[in-house]
Amino acid sequence: MKRSEKAEKIAVMLEDFYPETPVPLDHENAFQLLVAVLMSAQTTDLKVNEVTPALFAKAPNAKAMAQLPVEVILADIRQVGLAPTKAKNIRRMSEMLMERHGGEVPASFEALEALPGVGHKTAGVVMAQSFGVPAFPIDTHIHRLAARWGLSNGKNVDKTEKDLKAVFPKELWNKLHLQIIFFGREYCPARGHDLTTCPICSWAATKKRIKEEMKR
Question: Is the pTM for the entire model greater than 0.90?
Answer without folding.
Answer: yes
